[in-house]
Design brief:
Layout: H1 3-23, E1 25-29, H2 33-45, E2 49-53, H3 56-66, E3 70-73, H4 82-91, E4 99-104, H5 109-117, E5 122-125, H6 130-153
Parallel strand pairs: 1-2, 1-3, 3-4, 4-5
């Protein structure tokens, strides 16, 4: 492949990345209303589409309806834990590619490892800085899209 063609493909991929990040749909799953308020305002201000679920059952229904690109998921929720949600999503053929960012007050190394071993793509401890979380979300989406484009080009 000549250099001009390769540069054009990279430019097209970057333009698509920029468009996709503006249109990314994020589902926030947490039983704390304050988290929904903070994250919802910030993500909408940054151009993301945002949906909210306060427990696992609401999350499953929204995932089936809306197919989010990324889920911000709390671990400690009533009835069904975030770890169980993560397991189920990563085992499903239609949901295994959804990015999962665990956000939890549980911040030990063992908790982080458990979350990642059960399929989370990233793990952030509460309390967190909003701008840092935003950058983490943007980075996850960009990496996912770049990987998708690399696979398409091959």
């Amino acid at each position: 492949m000549d250099l001009e063609c390769e540069n054009k493909q990279k430019e097209d991929a970057q333009n698509t990345l920029n468009q996709q990040s503006e249109k990314a749909h994020i589902l926030v799953v947490d039983d704390e209303p304050e988290i929904h308020t903070m994250l919802g305002k910030m993500l909408k201000r940054e151009g993301f589409s945002v949906a909210h679920a306060y427990n696992a059952m609401e999350a499953y229904a929204l995932i089936d309806q809306q197919k989010p690109h990324l889920i911000v998921l709390d671990i400690m929720m009533p009835q069904i834990s975030g770890i169980e949600v993560c397991n189920k999503l990563k085992a499903g053929s239609l949901t295994k590619d959804i990015l999962i960012l665990i956000v939890s007050a549980r911040d030990s190394q063992a908790d982080r490892i458990e979350g990642l071993e059960h399929g989370a793509d990233e793990y952030v401890s509460k309390p967190f800085h909003l701008r840092a979380l935003l950058r983490k979300i943007e980075h996850m989406l960009q990496k996912h899209l770049e990987s998708h484009f690399e696979n398409e080009i091959r």
